[in-house]
Here is the input.
Amino acid sequence: MKISKEKFLSCDWGTSSFRLRLVDAINQVTIAEESSSQGIFLTHELWKQTGKPKKNKLLYFQSFLHDQIKKIEEKQKCSLKELPLVISGMASSSIGMLELPYKEIPFCTDGSDLEIKTIAADTFFSHPTIIISGVKTSDDVMRGEETLLVGCFPIRKDENQVFIFPGTHSKHVTVKNGLAVGITTYMTGEYFELLSKKSILSASIEKGGDRQYDKNQESFKAGVLHGIETNLLHGSFLVRTNQLFAKFSNQENYFYLSGLLIGAELKDLKNNMASGLLIVGNKNFIPYYKTAILLLNLPGAVFVRDADEALIRGQLKICSNLDLL
Here is the structure.
């Protein structure tokens, strides 16, 4: 099975989100895109409600994929029949299309030794499919970030680098001499969601979008510094006293809490020996993490990579290494 030299379908299927792209493989750019909040978890729950046997699970997931591909076909007014599909993320998990084993650390950053599964096209689903599995250590895991990491190479050949993947569960991946040798997960995004919406702190916070970031940088920076200096359980309560004592407005508190949690996440990098820190994310996350890293004067030069570009590059690289391109 080989990917078309001109186009392929790229899928990033997370726990709570779904993104499908029609990609120009030569220029590595997105031609069309379809997104949905129907992530792997919801799809799995909907499949369970059908009451059908486990052997029908793959067909159920393929049916959803077929519908999303059809939407792109209608937008582009063309047929995508038989075009290969590459999937990263949670599709290979226990609640995904089919469960694949994790690749154990270390793994090559060129993607040559990752676990993958190929599914041939048939009369029901005309797209030959490549599913990329995740990576594990003795006490940590990731699915999806391994593809992004591969998409960042080749880069500088420094001996020790740390790649930061911001998100609901932020990942820090340590790379030495072309091998990923460590993973650390931080529940930064999930904690922010819980504290800002479901705790007593919610009354002290007013959501501020990315457009408000520039005018709220001072409260964000204050949060970052407190995050690296204080106990997080105490620092979190300062969100409430910031309001009670009129230190910050509710919107400023939104950015203070964000800085507090990002500072707590980055604390472990204060004494790292990395020669480079690379942030791999989208435009919403990058300014926050870059500001925090520079404010904390963390060791190592700071680099940035766009996550969407890294995903496409990573998927192409993995398939090329396995002679699927």
The mean pLDDT is 93. The domain at 7-154+310-321 is CATH 3.30.420.300 (Nucleotidyltransferase; domain 5). Residues 21 and 33 are 4 Å apart (CA to CA).
